[in-house]
Design brief:
By secondary structure, the protein is mainly α. It has helices spanning 7-11, 13-37, 48-53, 61-64, 66-82. It starts with 6 loop residues before the first helix and ends with a helix. It comes from Bradyrhizobium niftali.
Length: 86
């Protein structure tokens, strides 16, 4: 029969909507898992040419990393502490 409803239509729009949301969540989960399996590329991993393309030199990497910023804050706090500023 040509007028017969498909399973998705028979269950109604709520069921179809739930399936699409679940499908979306499943795709995001698989993408998340895929991303976790690949190691991250760091600035140290880039070639000198690639660093030049983004306007950096290998010597500048240490000055823009978060670890370097934390070291500067720590050094500044130690300096102030030594002067009696804290």
């Amino acid at each position: 029969m040509d007028d017969a409803l498909s399973d998705g239509d028979a269950a109604g729009p709520a069921a179809a909507s739930t399936r699409s949301v679940l499908g979306l969540l499943r795709r995001y989960w698989y993408a998340f898992q895929e991303r976790r399996q690949h190691p991250r590329v760091t600035l140290q991993d880039l070639s000198d040419r690639e660093l030049m393309d983004i306007g950096l030199t290998r010597g500048e990497i240490d000055y823009i990393t978060p670890e370097r910023a934390i070291e500067r804050l720590r050094d500044r706090a130690l300096y102030l502490w030594g002067r009696g500023g804290m």
